[in-house]
Design goal:
alpha/beta, TIM Barrel, Elongation Factor Tu (Ef-tu), domain 3, 2 domains, eight-stranded parallel barrel, six-stranded antiparallel beta sheet, 10 helices, binds iron/sulfur cluster
Length: 407
């Protein structure tokens, strides 16, 4: 690695224990999760206290780090339970907490030795704010997503705290998620982890005396999605991102699938390693961009990074697209019979094409020529959710490989 380049941490979302495993097995250096309360994903598959203990063990056994999101804007009534939870996280051994609220930062400092990462929800957009949080005890600042690469580099040059930036995933139309839209329209507060993604809904105009008459507010028969942001993808800018000296590159998506987490982590792992091994010869490979196209996503944008002012909304639809369907996870491989045991996650049948995304090895494709159930009976398809089936594979396949089919 070049002496002037410091390899950044790749930080991945862990929406549940399986996604945490996938993120680490596919190459993340660290993961972040939310507990049952106080993180901003109230509808997520959040971790119980027992699961947090298991997650810390699993992560540390691999020499990697785990951070707990405690990033709600708290109310007075939250603080007794928060005190208890923070003490639990400290005793559990999480490597840091991700916090937005100054009161929660003060409480954590008073009661625990937990490292503090300031959440992107705190909207840090300048080095004065970053330095102030650092002086208040934060070791890391997760910068607001609304910054250009130049501004990020400037903050880095003027602040000693570690910096973390988002490189991939969904974006909010509001300032780094500080938004009242969902609360206003549905009563569910995005700042308490209950966002209903109201910005992605289809909006029309109604004149108040003409009940039921909807007037389009954009020149498109499908309506208007004026607040529906594209998804962030800084892979094309990854060299510049790493050169800026930020400590951690974060992937958004605690609500995304295990297929999404594995695919995106694998791409960024490869890109970071490739750049740091040989910065002068680095190029963004087509196969990485192809992989990012296979997971569910909206059209990609580099967001604010380039500072080019290009529009970042999608006016036609709010539905994500993907170019591959997730079929199952390889749970075992028998080299003597060249068969894989696959846990079903989507419909597949004998005769169809399937590809295997492997944690370390190359992705390969083949036709499913035969399938058997756990009793060894020949079957044509696997109709039951999470059913285990064995099938012959053309090549040795790694456990935790994901089986997918083109859409
Ligand atoms: S409604 Fe949209 S902009 Fe507001 S917090 Fe939710 S995702 Fe973000």
């Amino acid at each position: 690695m070049s002496t002037s380049i410091v390899k950044p941490e790749l930080l991945a979302p862990a929406g549940n224990f399986e996604k945490l495993q996938a993120a680490l097995i596919y190459g993340a250096d660290a993961v972040y999760f939310g507990g049952e309360n106080f993180s901003l994903r109230a509808f997520g598959d959040n971790f119980t206290r027992d699961e947090i203990l298991s997650a810390v063990d699993f992560t540390h056994a691999r020499g990697k780090k785990i951070y707990a999101a405690v990033n709600i804007y708290a109310r007075n009534a939250d603080f007794d339970a928060l005190a208890d939870y923070l003490k639990f996280l400290d005793a559990a051994g999480v490597d840091a907490i991700i916090v937005s609220d100054l009161g929660v930062i003060a409480l954590a400092r008073q009661l625990t030795d937990l490292k503090i990462h300031v959440s992107t929800q705190a909207n840090v957009t300048n080095f004065h704010a970053a330095k102030t949080f650092h002086e208040l005890g934060a070791s890391r600042i997760v910068l607001a997503r609304e910054l250009t690469g130049e501004e990020i580099a400037d903050i880095k040059a003027n602040c000693e705290a570690e910096l973390e930036i988002f490189v991939h995933g969904s974006m909010c139309i509001s300032y780094s998620g500080r938004c009242w839209l969902s609360k206003f329209l549905t009563g569910r507060d995005a700042n308490r982890g209950q966002c209903t993604h109201s910005c992605r809904w289809k909006y029309q105009l109604v004149e108040e005396t003409r009940d039921g008459e909807f007037f389009p507010v954009a020149g498109d028969e499908r309506g208007s999605y004026v607040m529906n942001s594209k998804d962030l993808c800084l892979l094309p800018n990854i060299a510049e991102v790493i050169r800026s000296g930020v400590t951690s590159l974060k992937i958004e998506g605690r609500m995304k699938s295990v297929n999404y987490v594995a695919g995106v982590v694998k791409v960024y792992r490869a890109a970071i390693d490739s750049f740091c091994d040989n910065p002068d010869k680095f190029t963004v490979r087509d196969e990485w961009l192809d992989e990012l196209d296979k997971v569910a996503h909206r059209p990609y944008t580099t967001g604010f990074f380039a500072g080019d002012g290009k529009p970042t909304e999608i006016y036609s639809t709010s539905k994500p697209k993907r170019s591959a369907n997730f079929l199952g996870i390889v749970r075992a491989f028998d080299a003597s019979t060249m068969t894989a045991t696959v846990e079903q996650r989507g419909k597949f049948t004998v005769g169809q094409r399937a590809e295997f995304l492997q944690p370390c090895g190359e992705t390969f494709s083949q036709t499913i020529t035969e399938m058997r159930d756990v009793d060894g009976e020949e079957i044509f398809d696997a109709p039951h959710a999470q059913q285990l089936v064995t099938l012959p594979v053309d090549k040795p396949v790694e456990v935790w490989s994901l089986m997918r089919s083109p859409t």
